[in-house]
Design a protein that fits this description.
It contains eight helices and 17 strands. With 297 residues, it is α/β, with parallel strands linked by helices. The chain starts with 5 loop residues before the first helix and ends in a 5-residue tail after the last helix. Helix 2 packs parallel to helix 8. The radius of gyration is 20 Å and the shape is globular. 24% of the residues lie in helices and 26% in strands.
């Protein structure tokens, strides 16, 4: 996903000390710590804390708190407001090396930061067979980025939430959108056809040619995985990973200088306390990195 276009490397805008990617506990902890360290930060997420936090039946291992996920989320929101921590509600779809630090994209919006903290979480469900093999060959995670490439074509959209906004956006380009969703969703576009089946494989020769369900195969030119957390090595090419997890050191440093990671994206245990601790550590590591004057290579 590293782009060679000079426009990306030379794009000039506000340069943050760090960009925190992910709206969960790890991202919030990193933002809290960054503010206390007087770092100029920007925190990205589609929604603060998310459904996983709010739906926890009981939070057992977070110091000073007893109760359920809904209460926990409410307490976090209260702290967020009191500390004046701002969440920029955007989904980052790409992180790229730039002339000074890193270049982040969110649809048509662009941001620049000297360092990045990845706190994107992890998808616990199994991936679809062929999903990774056809990445860039018909498989995409970003409707805004790649939707126009499928003008007048038939595509599949696999929805992991009940928000069909990106599917509606794809419908403005495609001849037809086959929308696969585990939950009933309301759509407005007449060229969206909902299919109550689970996609088990993406197939083709050199590019995507069809999606396969338990009931049969559907010919398509592209497949969009919508609302799904991007695999970290898709979000930023070149990261060293083990399975779905980013390999990190004790300070949250990754294989890419200037990029740090925290929370579920670094692997088990998938616990709120661990995520909060790693978010704090990552922010301190950013502070040390910037103070040392290290340059991205």
């Amino acid at each position: 996903m590293i782009r060679a276009d000079p426009w990306y490397n030379n794009y000039m805008n506000k340069i943050y000390d760090t960009a925190i990617v992910g709206g969960g506990i790890a991202g919030f902890s990193a933002a809290l710590t960054a503010k206390s360290l007087k770092l100029d930060y920007v925190w990205f997420g589609e929604k603060a804390f998310g459904k996983k936090t709010a739906s926890a039946e009981y939070v057992r291992n977070y110091p000073s708190f007893t109760g359920g996920g809904a209460e926990f989320s409410a307490a976090l929101e209260k702290q967020k407001a009191a500390e004046e921590i701002v969440l920029t509600e955007r989904r980052i779809d790409g992180v790229y090396k730039a002339a000074e630090g890193f270049f982040l994209t969110s649809g048509e919006e662009n941001y620049t930061a000297r360092t990045v903290i990845l706190a994107t979480g992890v998808e616990l469900g199994a991936g679809v067979k062929g999903e990774r093999e056809f990445l860039g060959k018909g498989v995409s995670y970003c409707a805004v980025c790649d939707g126009a490439l499928y003008r007048g074509k038939r595509i599949a959209a696999l929805l992991s939430s009940d928000d069909a906004e990106e599917a509606e956006y794809l419908a403005s380009f495609a001849e037809e959108v086959l929308l696969f969703s585990a939950k009933p969703v309301q759509v407005k576009a007449k060229n969206i056809r909902t299919v109550a089946e689970r996609v088990v494989a993406v197939e083709g020769e050199k590019r995507v040619e069809r999606v396969v369900t338990g009931a049969g195969a559907y010919p398509v030119s592209g497949v969009f995985f919508l609302g799904k957390a991007l695999p970290p090595d898709v979000l930023f090419a070149g990261l060293k990973t083990e399975g779905a997890s980013v390999v990190v050191g004790r300070g949250g440093e990754t294989s890419v200088k200037g990029v740090f990671a925290a929370g579920d994206v670094t692997g088990k245990p998938y616990q709120f306390a661990k995520a909060a601790g790693e978010g704090c550590v990552a922010a301190y590591s950013v502070k040390d990195y910037l103070k040392s004057g290290k340059k991205d290579e």
